[in-house]
Protein 1
Amino acid sequence: MTKEGIPPDVKAASPLRGLDVEEQERVSSGIAELDRVLGGGWVPGGVVLLGGEPGVGKSTLLLQVCAQMAQGGRKVLYISGEESSGQLAMRGRRLGLMPEGLYLLCEDDLPSSLKAAEKYDFVVVDSVQAFRADAENGWAGSPNQVRGVASMTVEMAKNFRVPTVMVGHITKQGQIAGPKLLEHMVDVVLLFSGEQNSPNRLLRAEKNRFGSTDELGIFEMSEKGLFPVLDPVSYTHLTLPTISSV
């Protein structure tokens, strides 16, 4: 026993009041509305799950983010298992987003793609349901596969301290497709939603280890991409998005 009465093989706990508060380093997304919802921007090594129904504009939002960050001098990697490089390039050209520093990897071999992530400052995986983890059974999008893909992505982000976003689709029941564990594996869960036949889009944090979940980002979708709504008062009638807890 030590003089404090604690066995030498047992670690002593630290008093909460005596610990230094560590401020989280932030990396701006280049989009003020998104930074506000995140609590100030991306956190190095932090993993964000962006959920939303197919077609709501998740990929468009992230392509704009990637372009803004690349224009700011950061090296960005967009890994897509759902669209070809030609399709993404066509969308980027339509939106006027063709900066240097933005790189695409469009394949379903996620492990090899993640090995390249060490060289980048920001990574997008689109989507978590589109890839397969070799160590897991089942088809792409099955619970085992989603868990395996998410685990590989989180490990990469933490090891390389690269802010990373995983895209997830929403089911008809309002849940992010895949096991509920998926939401516990990440640091932030963002939900992007919009009403049918409306250009309005809402972004909110359903979970945020690095900030508040009270902020709401409002965007308007157009042929030229997503634009922040500067007068949100006229949009207060919209229903806030939620993820079903069923």
Protein 2
Amino acid sequence: MRNLKLTLAYDGTDFSGWQVQPGRATIQGLVASAIGRLTGENVLPQGSGRTDAGVHALAQVATLATRSPIPVENFAKVLNDTLPASIRVLSAEEVAPEFHARKSARAKTYEYRMDRRATCSPFVARYVWHYPFPLDEAAMAEAAGVVEGENDFTSFAAVDPEKSPGEQGREQPRTNVRLIYSSLWQRRGDEFVYTVRGSGFLHHMVRNLVGTFVLVGKGTMDRQGLRQILALRDRSAAGATAPASGLFLINVEY
């Protein structure tokens, strides 16, 4: 038995997220079908975490066990011949038996992109949150550091019990405490981009953080208000969930 590591990129717009779901097109489901056609095995690749419907990835990681003797250098090419163009296997490599895409992960980086132009180009609309309204971007950038460090992020976690495993990819999370290594807003041309790196992320956590930072940008909340929301551990105290279209899984560290 071989343990293979796949690194994938995908446009999540037309999919119901990573996790396989009956009757719905998902990244995991389509990759599993492509592996089945290639190897003849019934294999479900395990991802580093479950990205939601509409969320994109530049470097999602998945592992799978296979008895297939197909050389790893051929895996990516053959899978890409089968998968839709919106899902690409960037690389395939054989790894140690104990390596697991989710359990072995040590940190992840997400990026959220807001398009600040008056009119959003149709060629980027699928990959941003178009927000042409006034925002104090400097205030948002200054407030970003409030969430750095180890905190209980219950105020920024989805309350849907069916969704509880969430973006951090843990099957039954026992705590909502997460360690955020860096939290940063910065301008990139016409886009205002939020980049966050942490030990793990709760379901909707990044999108809920973005929605709350927008309140800071609108002047209805300041840094102290953000600290209070964090301390309350109450989802209803935080801002609305930002649209999925602007969120990208950038990197997984092992």
Protein 3
Amino acid sequence: MTTCLKTVVACGALIGAMTVAPLMQTPADNQLTPAEKQAGWTLLFDGKSLDGWRGYKRQDAASTRWKVENGTLTLPANDGKDTRGARDIISTATFDRFELTFDFRVGLGANSGVKYYVLEDLDSAIGHEYQIIDDERHADAKIGLERQTASFYDVMEPKDRKLKPAGEWNTGRVVAMGPNVEHYLNGARVLSYELGSPALKKLVADSKFKDVTRFGTLQKGHILIQDHGDQVWYRNVKVRRLAGATQP
């Protein structure tokens, strides 16, 4: 009787594990779960193509170095040409109030970034940048925390980061709720700021963007991924419009 009972319990545990296991699996890369779809998320990168992206002030992405490789949006190592900025890619859609998430990995000594509120009104693509860089090796990161990973580039430094080193995957997130904007790294909020506030105006006045009149205000702009000449990888780039967002 005891043997039979043990058999029943063991079988029950096995069936339970088989039932629960699929629910605990990590969602496939570059795909949306039913819950994400219901919550309004869309993919900005489908893992297969550059659909939804184009070059800055270009009709398509043909002039860029970006390519799809093993389900990632990636760049090769520096090809020796200094064309920084000329081969950035921007989303064809524009956003003002949104939530954006993305996984990123940088090569040794690499520099990149994800910008938002990008307009095509200037020769170079100016926007608020979630900085992505090899903090340990790239010279720009040595200037200060305001130029390190997850910072509001050259404007505001991140706090209490749990950053994985170059070569490993990290997850970035930007939540732009109108006047309030937040940066997250690997699930933790690392900075927040208020558009148009005196505190932000002071920070901008001390930054390289001090002469860009519209900088630090709410924009309906493109999302941009930066080609800084270095090897980087992105995947699971997802966005959703938040309450009050201007529809396309």
Protein 4
Amino acid sequence: MVRLPTAGKALLPLAVFGMAACSNPTPQAGMELGAELFETCAPCHGDAGQGNVDIAAPAIAGLPQWYVEDQLRGFQNEYRGDHASDLPGLRMRPMAVSLTRDVDVPSVSQYVASLDPLYPESTLHGNAGAGAASYAVCVACHGEDGLGNPDLHAPPIVMLDDWYLLNQLRNFKSGARGARPADTWGQTMRVNSLALSDEAMQDVIAYVQTLR
């Protein structure tokens, strides 16, 4: 049996650790990693990102990468999905927190953005004519076409489920979203939601559906 010198014995664990680290390098950001990570999203959001209204999982296919990243960061930084009344958010937050590597969030967001965009069918029955007047306040951020503005962190609301938009407006109004100081853009949205009754919310969302 070969006996190692004392110094060699001390260095052996370090050498083994170094070999293990080299055999498990941090993966590169990109579509391949994003597709792999999306496998944990598919049970709720669907293989094609089509969503599932029964579990309040919105359609996300084709949403801009910057927007998906914004939302995941919001969950990670605890200004989304931290309120007792936001049950879908509470379910989503652990999934976002599990994306621990620097490359995870941009990769899965890039993959989501690459999916064929979906424009979910309307499920609400608001008055689009009445909603047009309320939407005048929304134009500054979301645009006349509802396609949003990345500089203002305003999402393309024409691509989002109407029931999801209603839930989020209710969350902003109740303080389940937009009440944390770290949520700069959410605070702006919360102010606008406070002026809307539940009926007015459904009306403005009905108008949004006409912009598709």
